[in-house]
Amino acid sequence: MAPLAGLKVIELAHIMAGPVCGRMLADLGADVIKVERIPGGDASRGFVPPDIGGESAAFMMLNRNKRGIAVDLKSDGGREVVRRLARRADVLIENYRAGTLERLGLGYERLRGENPGLILCEISGFGRTGPYADIGGFDLIAQGYSGLMSVTGEGPGRPPVKCGPPLTDITAGILGAVGVLAAYVHRQATGEGQRVDTSLFEAGITQTYWQSAITLATGVSPGPLGSAHPLSAPYQAFETRDGWVNVGASSEETWKRLIEVLGRAELRRDARFRTNAARMGHLSELVALLAPEFKKRSTHDWVEALERAGVPAGPVLTIGEMLDHPQTAARAMRTRVPHAKLGAVETLGFPIHLRATPAEVRRGAPMLGEHTREVLAEFGYQTGEIEELVKAGAVLALI
Fold first, then answer.
1. Residues 31 and 155 grouped into a single domain
2. Is 23 exposed, middle or buried, given 0-12, 13-18 or 19+ CB atoms closer than 10 A?
3. Which residue range is the domain that position 63 belongs to?
4. How confident is the model at residue 87, as a pLDDT?
């Protein structure tokens, strides 16, 4: 049995951070019911190209393992559907702007009046308190506010660079899932639900542990270092004859092994590089000496030689190379999932391996309104009532 089997989650969320939270819980066995808007559904359905058979690849990646219903929240019937779902749910996830659910009559105080054990997970741009509570959430903006873009890039004087993946969206979704699990443990002991409040802003800040430690200790904000580490050297990517190799010589022992492999053992006697602190203080000089050596051999040769010597090393893979890597297959991080329209669709696996209660990728992302009739019937709606809601446009039912 999956660890969260029996947990009923209503996902009233769109695009990314909220759906990431829902996906994490769904992969762990929760019954996640995704509530999409009418018309159009989740905006990520329109994130094409790429598509697979007309279905957004982005939407399918984020929304597997969920059942989906489509509801017009501007209609009385649609809002009543959500209230009825919330009465029997354990968790409700939302990532709307502050006050949106309250204006729709779906605020937490009203919902918990009918379900005191309800856990509300709110994922927003800057959190539900503070002077920025009303500002919407976008990964690019959060990466700027959180300081991430000030330390990402090639080096001083270069333009700021956004981390390639939407780091704050994904991290906020994971933080939301952690908060839900903590609130669920509390509810198991007390019967009380609570609000779980996290944000893209805080998700970005969470990624700055090393840089914030430096700033808090010195009062000086570090800048970008390319692939280099802010506290250890040499710990970065070096260009090889045919690509790039990451080298993690982060201790005195691995530093000595590295320069032996490079044939530069004399650097042990160079005062500029005798300690990690000295190497950090002369990083540009160190890189200038090491970089030409790495260009003499291929990435594969360097990885083999360095690993044999006990120096952490690895190639810089493309996403395609990563997906085809044997370790990706061994960890089941590339898998297939059934989809109602497309058959088997490839997706990513679940990154936490629980031996006794493993997660399971069991169903593809829902078509818009695919499970509306099924879910409403489970929550007490009679066939005639469902058809009236469909006829009135309060809900959309694919099947």
1. yes
2. buried
3. 8-207+326-396
4. 98
- How are beta strands 31-37 and 66-71 bridged, if at all? parallel
Is 79 exposed, middle or buried, given 0-12, 13-18 or 19+ CB atoms closer than 10 A?
A: middle
Residue 177 forms part of a structural domain: yes
Other residues' Cβ atoms within 10 Å of the Cβ of residue 205: 18
The answer to whether position 124 is within a domain reads yes
User: Are 352 and 289 contained in the same domain?
Assistant: no
Does residue 224 lie within any of the structural domains?
no
Catalytic residue among 134, 169, 301, 324: 169
pLDDT at 167: 98
Q: Do 186 and 296 share a structural domain? A: no
**Dihedral angle over CA of 357, 359, 364, 368, nearest 10:** 90
Span between the terminal Cα atoms of the chain, in Å? 29
Residue keyed to tokens 């997970």? 121
The CATH number of the domain holding residue 18 is 3.40.50.10540
Which token pair is 103? 């204006």
For the cut 90, the answer to whether the pLDDT of residue 388 exceeds it is yes
Per-residue confidence at 399, pLDDT binned at 50, 70, 90?
confident
Contact criterion met (CB below 8 Å) for 23 and 61: no
For the whole model, what pTM was predicted? 0.94
- Six token digits for residue 125: 């741009």
Same domain, yes or no: 248 and 110:
no
| pLDDT, mean of residues 155-168 | 94
Does some domain include residue 227? no
Give, in degrees to the nearest 5, the angle at Cα 378 between 346 and 122.
65
Q: How many domains does the chain have?
A: 2
The CATH number that applies at residue 266 is: 3.30.1540.10
State the angle between helix axes of 167-190 and 17-27 in degrees (0 to 180), rounded to the nearest 10. Answer: 50
Domain boundary among 315, 342, 363: 315
pLDDT of res. 156: 87
Q: Does residue 72 carry a catalytic annotation?
A: no
Q: What is the distance between the alpha carbons of residues 208 and 212, in angstroms, rounded to a whole number?
A: 6
Q: Give dist(CA 362, CA 26) in Å, integer.
A: 10
pLDDT digits (tens, 9 = 90+) for 302-353: 999 999 999 999 999 999 999 999 999 999 999 999 999 999 999 999 999 9
